[in-house]
Amino acid sequence: MVLLLVIAFFVFAGIYADIMWFDQLGFLNVLTTEWIARIVLFLIGFVAMALPVWASIMIAYRTRPVYAKLNSQLDRYQEVFEPLRRLAMYGIPAVLGIFAGVSTAARWDVALTWLNRTPFGEVDPQFGLDVGFFVFELPFYRSVVGFASAAVLLSALLVIATNYLYGAIRISGREIVIAKAARIQIALTAGLYLLLQGVSIWLDQYATVTESGGLITGAAYTEVHATIPGRQILAAIAVGVAILFLITAVIGRWRLPLVGTALLVVAALLIGSLYPWVVQRFQVVPSQLQLESEYIQRNVDLTRQAYDVDDIEEIDYEAKTDTEPGALRADAETTASIRLMDPAVIARSFRQLEQYRQYYQFPNDLDVDRYQLDGGTQDTIVAIRDVDLEGLGDASTWYNSHIVYTHGYGLVAAAGNQRSADGQPVFLQSGIPSTGALGDFQPRVYFGENSPAYSIVGGPEGSKPVELDYPAGSNSTEQTQTTFDGDGGPKLDNAFTKLVYALKFQSEQIFLSDAVNDESQILYDRDPIERVSKVAPYLTLDSDTYPSVVDGRIVWIVDGYTLTDQFPYSNKVSMSEAIADSEGVAPALAFDEINYIRNSVKATVDAYDGTVKLYAWDAEDPILQTWQKIFPSTLSPMSEMSGELMSHVRYPEDLFKVQRAVLGRYHVDQAGAFYSREDAWTTPKDPTQPQASTLLQPPYYLTMQMPGQDAPSYSLYSTFIPEARGDQSRNVLRGYLAVDSDAGTEAGVKAEGYGKLRLLSLPEDDNVPGPGQVQNTFNSDPTVGRELNILKQGQSDVINGNLLTLPVGGGLLYVQPVYVQSTGNTSYPLLQKVLVAFGDQIAFQDTLDQALNVLFGGDSGAAAGDNTVDPGESPTEPTDPGAEPTDPGTEPTEPSQSTELQQLLNRAKQALADKQQALADGDWTAYGEADAELAEIISELVVLAGDEGSSTGGSDGSTGGTNGGSNG
């Protein structure tokens, strides 16, 4: 009893803690609604299973023959079973009822959505039923029928076992003798089971429009003309056989129901399996396109509708491949916003430049956002400086980990399109205390992606602060303390609450520590995605949340989706596989197929006090409307979103990835073209990954102007190449997909263009290189290779940043930042070069502005965002052999080789100094290394001198083309 009481108190502690957490956050009705639904469904499931099973056993026992003649084996069974009979008669139904109750309670969402269902207002083309029938009703009806079938089947088996044990069923030679009472009970049970099977088969015909077939999802020619009629016939046969069993209960003849059962089995094989196979093999396959066109068109239309890509704007794009001076003049705003800072690369730069203390941290992948600064939109790379308890080392005591180091401090933002003279990010918001262009805001981060499991904060008014706020200075050991003054978690204001949380977190210090007072609050479940998922269990959340400064607070913005896999005729995709790319790998096993998705909710989590707000972003979504009926008052209308919040929400990345996976094949809207797969596309592999990698290239956020737009807007884009045929795949560009991600700045009003999908389709005979081809060109170019080798000297690594693609200048411009990082533990990547490509021409310069000018004949007509950077080098000419110099009347200079010469001379000077120092120190190992370094430099100088001679000594001009030289 003591053990049971202890276990019960632990369970109660968890329940009570959940109540306090949800109540503090203002979403207690979500918890209570789910609990009530689970409890009610558990009781229904328990009774619906236990009662029929108990009644069946009891009836079979009470109607047993009084003087049954049993064989010796059954006598022994009865002797063993009789002392346990009462326990078995109640225990077996109870155990089965518990299992059934748990299974039923797990389907609480299906039951609640059925009770609160909302029509879609659209009908399926096969049965003419509202789509809501398939999404909300059919799954519920099939679950009920399946549960009832299981209960009846188990009852039947136990009835047979009980009757056999007590002699109501006897096997005598080849005969089976069944007592009258047992016959009636078994026949009625069998009839009820077959009646349920008839209902189940009838419901199965509706499932054909959501089942995946060999060609499409949904009922195709074979299903419509063979499977559906066959299931209707089988349902009628099953009901007929059920009636025969009911007749048997009266007349006592088993022949008719047994013959009927055999007929049902044969009919299931012939009508349910063989006939559809014959129709498919001998009627459909020879004339598949002609017979399936109607159903393929249904699949194409409804798939595009379900994934919200039916109103995509498709634009034929005749991409230019030749560069001309001034070609980018019309795209000046786009080129000025090209992002050079790769959020996946410069995280180490953030750590080295902005971490300050070992107890702070930055994530490995930074986020992209934008801010309205100086009258324009500035794309930024942002990250939270969060607390890192592992950095405390030996100081990682319970008091420090949960009382002192409670929060991170500050949001760090860097311009996406700028770099300093030495290649560092240009920070717009940085430092401790936080300063910069984003203005004044609450910088403390108590709720973040990497916050501690729990922290105890707060204290009486006037008490001495104990929470570390931030170090007083970069070179000072002084610290500034603070006391949390928000409402962020349950209060530990009595001994009982302290005991509850001491049990929850298995830490007696919560109960015993003097640092825990009546004003203390305990903060836990602090990850933004986790908090939103708990208060909105019906949402599937985007895998990436990002921080923004909104109305003087740091808030996390989370996108929520409503999904289903029951939309008629819509193609099913695995969501985890669709969103997997080089930024996130799919799980090994993915059982998350969907065929309908809407970004129905935008959620925010306050980084200071953890407040969660849910906004109905797509109020027209029937699934969201259904959940609003279930959890009323938990969602706020979009009209309550501030203008500043609107300026930071964006088109979610996971939704875009799912849509691009669908559009790879469903960009064609005609059945014939879809069937032939002659224009099927796929997302290219990430060219910056190792060659053997199969990871896809992720989409990127950029501010750019697409064809069909009047001005640049914050957009999310991806590219398409032809779908591979076997092991062969042409890495040429076939499509360019972009979506307008700018929701505007007006409070509560979504910008008119937000969510508009545009697809640029390139002609089949237009061989515009794809990302893989461009990356290969970069890697194999001799001039680029030589300069990269120079950058790699001195134990440095060269890192290729994300390869961006932009539709500018009438063609497609590729831009890739190149970073250099030394191999030391405290090193970080510096942006040193920029690679650009347009058509077959490339340029490799210190800045994007220089590279664009070189690529487009000396003057691109537009300025890049890094045009103010002056590393001290002049631009070189493009590496296209046919390029002309800016001024054909003068002899071109060779600034690139001059720069290489200067770099080699500088290295040689340092190597000589190292040799002299090693000689003075008597360090012969260092002397040998410096001497070897000097020899290598001399070899490179000899090679460079030979290159210069060849480029100036030719008479036909062909040898100097790499540097844009033509010798007249």
Automatic annotation (TrEMBL):
Location relative to the cell: Cell membrane
Positions with biased composition (Gly residues): 951-968
Start and end residues of each stretch annotated as Disordered: 863-900, 947-968
Membrane topology reported for the UniProt record: Multi-pass membrane protein
Bias-annotated ranges (Low complexity): 881-895
Bilayer-spanning residue ranges: 36-61, 87-108, 144-166, 186-203, 233-251, 258-278
Pfam families: UPF0182
Keywords, alphabetical: Cell membrane, Membrane, Transmembrane, Transmembrane helix
GO cellular component, one term: plasma membrane
InterPro entries, sorted: UPF0182
Homology family: Belongs to the UPF0182 family.
Protein's UniProt name: UPF0182 protein FLP10_14875
Organism (species): Agromyces intestinalis
